[in-house]
Design brief:
Layout (H helix, E strand, L loop, with lengths): L4 H18 L4 H6 L3 H13 L6 H18 L5 H10 L1 H15 L7 H18 L4 H26 L3 H20 L4 E3 L5 H7 L7 H28 L7 H23 L6 H19 L1 H11 L1 H6 L4 H27 L1 E3 L7 H12 L11 H19 L4 H28 L4
Antiparallel strand pairs: 1-2
Length: about 425
Amino acid sequence: MTTDPTTTATATEATDAAPAATLAVDPRLLVREAGFSGYVEEFKRRMKSGDLGSVPVVLGLILIAAIFQSLTGNFLNPDNLTNILKWIAGPGLIAVGIVFVLLLGEIDLSLGSVAGVSAAIASVLSVRSGVNEWLAVLIAIGAAVGMGALHGFFFAKIGVPSFVVTLAGLLTWSGLQMYVLGDKGTVNLINDGVIANLDTYFLGDGDVFYAWALAVLGTALFAAGQLLDHRRRSAAGLPARPMSEIWLRTGVVAVVSLVTAYVLNQNQGLPLPLVIFLAVVVIGDFVLRRTTYGRQVFAVGGGVEAARRAGVNVAWVRISVYMISAGMAALGGLFIASQQGSGDKLLGSGNVLMNSIAAVVIGGTSLFGGRGKTWSALLGILVIQSIITGLDLVHVNQSIQYMITGAVLLGAVVLDSVSRRTQKSAGRG
């Protein structure tokens, strides 16, 4: 019996190819392993493919700080930076809720009104009705979650477009806000009360320990999470980040955290609003990236029919997302009320909603659904609040502030659209 050498060679090649296919590694990770030049090559590849990540936001923050520091000379003062980190909590919490909505590719125009009516309910119950403040806060947040469930029901079950549902909610809850507040239209908060302290309280009454402790703890948790992810992926035979990249990322987080702690300690220490905001961002990020529910949100945002065929309860995901966004709006409204010292009929109006939406888009969450993270709310609101604070320092009229914020929002949306188009042309969309 003779053996065909061509057949034998082909079989041998196929046998050799099988292990090679099994051991195939993500080429992006191979590039990273090449050292510094590998990182440069990967950065170029990502930029060419439209995967810009947080680069525009970070560059924008540096540019904003440089411009306003040169114009005012005190933009980077510890007290001004501390105020920025305090003031981002209110609109930032609303922005976290918007991230969940935008991941579905939908919109919620009612969140400003939900924030306003929630603050009104909590203020009236605690001040005029004598209800315990903690209970008043819980009732207000619960009422907001109910409003979100109502929006989600009409959208997911009845089929009314989210734009129409939430626009109706905007009008309805604005009217309810005025009705709850009554003829006076304003309720001053209880001095040194729960709501009043949300914006003014510093952990340890200015003790420098808390800011340093949070910086060290945050860095340690980040490193632990990266190492755990590396271990799990390696054990499963999946491509994992090289250790050099993990330590580089940890080093960057450590520098940012420690510098922030130093700046805060030059003022009054660690503000409560920043702690709560960071906690919400971290929890939201964990929910979206590490839980089944989070994967379902991304699945629905990526394609409703595909998600339904995969067994996802699309209606429940949609309703729950609007409940989350409304709850976050209520919490944000309480911080805004604390900042201004009262609950009034104007709270939540003006540019509150637009700034929150702008923050999320500027931070990198796509308006078209399926792409984003809660960290984009933090990065984006830092940009928005830095611009607002800087313009206030140079005494720019509010009308000009609105136009500049609108231009920044438009620029972010254009960048998002171009990025998506570039990724599609590169086969990554």
